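Consider this:
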Amino acid sequence: MELPNDLKFAMEQQTVGIPQSKLRSAAEGISLRYRNETGEGKRLVSTAIDTLAYAVVRMPATYGAVYSALNDFLDINHPEIKTVLDVGAGMGTVAWAVGSTISTAERIVCLEREPAMIDFGKTLMKASPSLMSKTEWLSGDMRDIGSSMKYDLVVASYALGELNDRDREKVIVSLWNITDKILLIVEPGTPLAFSHLRSARTQLIDKGAVIIAPCPHSKSCPLPDDDWCHFTCRIARSRLHKQLKGGEVPYEDEKFSYLAASKEPVQTSINRVLRHPFIEEGRITLKLCTEKGIETRIVTKKQKDRFKAARKAKCGDAF
């Protein structure tokens, strides 16, 4: 998966003339702060050079995760989405993903508290006049969301992990209150981030939400406490991205977890592949999340069509 061409070009233009050593130092500082200060509500990316380094290193992976999550729930549910709110919008990654997946979107609102992120996001969006024309930027903190406006789709992407437990619970309630159709939460594919999603899932179900994806049901999560649900998307790396992260291969695998909840009744019942299929000669073993719970399913070569589908299946796919 790659960023849209106009976004790639805009990012490349912004790095012209910037010393690589300066970008690498900023990227290392951001990584350190995210490891040590996430969850405390602190400003982790606030300067122009930090914002540029963050865009190069993290924007492709965030775009890939959001794009994948959007496609997953749109495959199951097809609501007409005209208005979108992205909270903790950063530099507008969700807006770009929505522009690539939801043709009916007419208004996208990006709520972000960091002026450097807003300025950079606006600069990047000049590369796509059609996206820029329907995108608005608001300066504000997700903890202070009002309830006067509702949106068809509300998205919180890689944002809730920056909050403490009390603030996170309050924000989830606020997000649900301003959701008219779908609430989508995307987080890193880590045990800690999944625990936050799992708590959010319980909160939302208690408020009457119907879970669309990735879960095949709105019952209690069947995974044991020491396990977590996460998926992977493969992202193409630019040359600068490889240099800043010290990588050699031309791609990066981004692990992410997500939750899509609906205010309208939706029939899901789609089994979800939880782990990469275990392929042996003549048979494939799948670990599935089903409406009845976690199941291990063996598909043999005799089941021609299902065997073919199982061979192509990957973690996160419906089956």
